[in-house]
Specification:
This protein is mainly alpha-helical and 339 residues long. 77% of the residues lie in helices and 1% in strands. Helix 1 packs antiparallel against helix 13, helix 2 crosses helix 11 and helix 12 packs antiparallel against helix 13. One of its GO terms (cellular component) is plasma membrane. It comes from Actinoallomurus iriomotensis.
Length: 339
């Protein structure tokens, strides 16, 4: 009974830490928006707000998939290249044809799933370090994309209007892209928190040895995490084409670091076992808002990457500090119950 009580107390403590991180991001967003609006009243115009959410949608979608990977103590650096490959492949698929949107989405997610499957098999079954695997597939996929494109560009004029409508249209005044991202985020978030198999991802990240002794199929869960990340990257690739219309071979180049930054800034521990898809999405929204603020204030775009890097370092430092404090608190709690 004492062990169960201690474990429940530990979970409550972790939940408090997560809520604190997410609330701090919300507070930072409010302050950032308030200060920028005071400097430029047009920042909070209906179009300005719409653009922020549209720009954040694809990054948040990728952050949701990356969260599933990171909580298992792994990482996926190939997501940016997958987005670029799928965006170009989808553009070629619809070129000169009015394809069914569902078919285009299925094709994009299927390509992403294959890329995720390759990553997952190499990491989970062949025990190759995730950093090495996904860095390798990043360059392989980029190389394939460049070879296939041969400098060709997909133009918005050649993309069916029905697909472009997915990127610019709305329902009840709410753009489709944020709606899609919110639905995916809620589904994945609910699964990770409410289903035993979803909690297993966190168990693997918290303590792989204990998870193995508890009978959790670590290989299966890691493989699943990479496939989900690949599927969402594929979906993001189609949405990229729908959002921007014009696509070249290096679409989403460098976005893998933006995605990792959004996830870590959003409170997902880089060492695994802690974090939520909601925090990751908030991290993506914060980074996107910072980018919009810099544009409004006419600050050099270089500072966007610099600030993202600074936030990443700060988030990792905070994660480490919180991890040490939570560990000490749990040890004291367990010692009291043990006594």
């Amino acid at each position: 009974m004492a062990a169960v009580t201690a474990d429940a107390g530990g979970r409550r403590l972790v939940d408090i830490v997560l809520r604190a991180r997410e609330l701090s991001i919300v507070a930072a967003l409010i302050v950032l928006v308030a200060v920028t609006t005071a400097a430029n009243s047009s920042f909070l115009s209906s179009q300005g707000v719409k653009d922020i959410f549209l720009n954040a949608s694809i990054l948040a979608l990728l952050a949701v998939g990356q969260t599933m990977v990171v909580v298992t103590r792994n990482i996926d650096l190939s997501v940016g290249s997958v987005v670029g490959l799928v965006a170009f492949a989808s553009g070629k698929f619809v070129l000169g044809h009015d394809r069914n949107i569902v078919l285009v989405l299925v094709l994009g997610m299927a390509i992403g799933a294959v890329c995720g499957l390759v990553n997952g098999v190499l990491v989970s079954f062949f025990k190759v370090p995730a950093l090495v695997v996904t860095l390798g597939t990043l360059y392989v996929i980029q190389g394939l994309d460049y070879y296939w494109a041969h400098g060709q560009q997909i133009n918005a004029a050649d993309v069916p209007s029905s697909l472009l409508e997915l990127g610019s249209g709305s329902v009840l005044g709410i753009p489709y892209l944020p709606l899609i991202t919110i639905v995916v985020m809620v589904v994945v978030g609910y699964y990770l928190r409410s289903f035993p198999s979803g909690r297993e991802f966190y168990a693997i990240g918290s303590n792989p040895d204990a998870a193995r002794l508890a009978g959790i199929s670590i290989r299966k869960r890691i493989l699943t995490a990479y496939v989900v990340s690949g599927v969402l990257a594929g979906l993001a690739g189609v949405l990229w084409l729908a959002r921007f219309g014009t696509v070249v071979a290096d679409a989403a180049h460098g976005w893998e670091l933006k995605v990792v930054s959004a996830v870590v800034v959003g409170g997902v521990a880089i060492v695994g076992g802690l974090g939520s898809v909601y925090g990751a999405a908030l991290g993506a929204l914060l980074l996107t808002t910072i980018g919009s603020v810099l544009v409004v204030l006419k600050v050099n775009s270089f500072w966007q990457d610099a600030i993202a890097g600074l936030l990443l370092l700060l988030a990792i430092s905070v994660d480490r500090l919180l991890s040490l404090r939570v560990t000490r608190a749990l040890r004291r709690r367990n010692a009291r119950h043990g006594a």
